[in-house]
Amino acid sequence: MLYIHNTLTRKKEEFEPIDAADVRMYVCGPTVYDFAHLGNARPIVVFDVLYRLLQRLYPRVTYVRNITDIEDKIMDRARENGETIESLTARTTQAFHDDMAALNALPPTVEPRATQYIGDMVAMIEKLVAKGHAYVAEGHVLFNVPSMGNYGELSRRSRDELVAGARVDVAPYKKDAADFVLWKPSAPEQDGWDSPWGRGRPGWHIECSAMAEKNLGATFDIHGGGLDLIFPHHENEIAQSRCAHDGAVLANYWMHNGFLTVNNDKMSKSLKNFFTVRELLAHAPGEALRLALLSGHYRSPLDFSIEALQAAKAKLDRWYGALRVVAYEPYVDCNPPSSFEGALLDDMNTSLAISHIDKLVNNIHAKRITEGDDAAKNELLSCARALGLLYQNPEEWFKWKPAGQSGLSDEEINAQIAARLAARQAKNYAESDRIRDALAAQGVILEDGPAGTTWRRG
RNA sequence: GGCGCGGUGGCAGAAUGGCUAUGUAGCGGACUGCAAAUCCGCGUAUGCCGGUUCGAUUCCGGCCCGUGCCUCCA
To answer: Which residues of chain A have pLDDT under 70?
Structure first.
C-alpha cells in the first residue's frame, strides 16, 4: 500500500489510482535556456524514485515530463547568443538529457515539448474564452481569476490575499489584479505563432495544462514538481484545466519536493553558490550526486555542500565494496524485500530506505559473505536499484576519475604496484612506502589483500 | 503583513506515548612489516517553559531561533 503526502490536503493519503492498469503522472520539466542546476535535478531524481516504485506496483505507468522550449528567458538568451531558439534549445535539451542520464534518471514515457503543442494551447485558450473564463485585452488573452469560484485551493491563498500581497505593478488592461496571461503578443523580432488573437506566444502556465491534457486526459493521478511551483504555476494550471474541463479535477495527488540550499544559503546566481549538474559531475560520479539528493526526505529542504557530496561518495564506496564481495554479475532483476519497500511506500522515506541498505552492507561484511551469495546480492542490488543506484561494475566504480583530470593511467599505476611489490619482497619497506605515498599523493589508494594489491581512486 | 515548514548526538539524518535507527567523525582493540580496507567494542542527542499522562523527544499551548512562499524560480 502506497502512501503519499498530498499537497491538496496537506496529509499523507493512501494512493488509489484512477485506473490501476495505467497509472498516470505528470511532472514539470525544465525550461531549457541553460544547463540544469542541482535544484533542477532534485525533482527529476525524486520523481524517478517514485516512477520506479510505481512500476513495481502497477503493470503500466505513463510518466509525462515536459520540456519547456518556448519562454521569454529562452528568447532572451537566444538573442544574446545571436542564435535561434531552436538551436539553443536543441543544445540545452541534449545537455539536460545527458545530465539526467548521468544521474540514472529513467527517461519519462512521454517528453512533450511545448513548441509542438501550440495548437493544443490555442484550442484550450479558445475554450476558456468561450466559457467566459478568459478575455482578450490589447493582444493578450488573460485568465479571469474571479471567474473561478474556488481559485487558490492548492496554495490555500484567497484572491484578496494575493492582490494585497502583490509586489508587482498590475497591468492596466487586466480586469482583476490576479488575472494571469494565457497568450501574449510578440513583437515582429520576437518568436511567435499565429493565433486568433494575432501573432504571439503562450504564457507559461497554459503550456503544462495543454501538454497534460493531450497526453494524460482531463484527470490523472499524480502531478509533481518543486515546492515553488505551487504558486502560481500549479494553481494556475488547475484553474485553466478545470475551467476548460467543466470542473473536472486535474490531478488527484499533488506532490512537491523541498528546496535545495547550498551551505545553508538559497542557491542563487547572485550568491555565486550555483552548481550546475554538469560541473558537479566532473567532481563526483553521478550516483554520488544522486545519493546526495536522496539522503534526506524529498519534502524537506536539502542543504547541499561538497562535504555532503563526498559523504555520499564515501557511502557508495562502502556499498560497492560489499557488492564486490558478493559479485556484481550475474544479476536477474527482482523486487526488493518488503522490509525495504515499506520505507518507500511510506511517502518515499528514502533516508530510511538508505539505512536499510547500510544494514545489508554491514551484514555482508560482518558475516564475510563470500562471492556467489546470490541471496545477499539480490537483496543488495534490488534495494539499491530501487533508488537508482549501484548500476556499475565495482571495479570501474573504484577507478572513476574526475573528468579532464590528467593523473596516472591504469598502466602507470600497475607498473608502480609491480615496483612496490618487488621492493616489499626484498623487505625494502622504505622504498615500498615511498611508492605508496607517491601514489596516494596522486589520489590512488592501495590496498594489500590476501590475493594481492588492489587500488582505487579516492 | 498573510500563508507555511522546521529545531534530534561533532556532523548528516530517520523514527517513536515507554524498548533512543543508520551513516560519518572520535576513542579503544583485532588484522597488517606499516598502512588501507574490513571486523569487534565504546561514548555523546531530542531548542526553552508549561499542560495532559503512570510515563512526553513524540500529543496540546506559549516562547525563542531558523527558514520557505506571497505572480522569474525545481
So the answer is: 160-169, 268-272, 369-372, 404, 406
**Helix A118-130 vs helix A204-216: angle between axes, to the nearest 10 degrees?**
100
> In 3-state terms, what secondary structure has residue A209?
helix
What is the predicted pLDDT for the residue at A407? Answer: 78
Strand partners, A11: A6
Q: What is the mean pLDDT of chain A?
A: 92
pLDDT score recorded for residue A76: 92
In this complex, the residue with its CA at the shortest distance from the C1' of nucleotide B31 is A449
Q: For A12 and B52, how far is CA from C1' in angstroms? A: 26
Gap from A365 CA to B28 C1', Å: 21
Rounded to 5°, angle at Cα A135 from A162 and A125:
95
- From its phi and psi, is residue A66 left (phi > 0), alpha (psi between -120 and 50) or beta? beta
Distance A167 CA to B70 C1' (A): 8
Residues 6+ apart with CB under 8 A from A379: A336, A337, A360
Q: HSE on the CB side for A224, CA within 13 Å?
A: 28
Strand B proximal residues, A:423-442, Cβ < 7 Å: 424, 429, 432-433, 436
pLDDT at A264: 72
Q: Give the separation between CA A12 and CA A17, rounded to whole angstroms.
A: 15
In DSSP terms, which residues pair with A449 in a beta bridge?
A452
> How do beta strands A260-262 and A302-304 pair?
parallel
Tally Cβ neighbours within 10 Å of residue A14.
Answer: 8
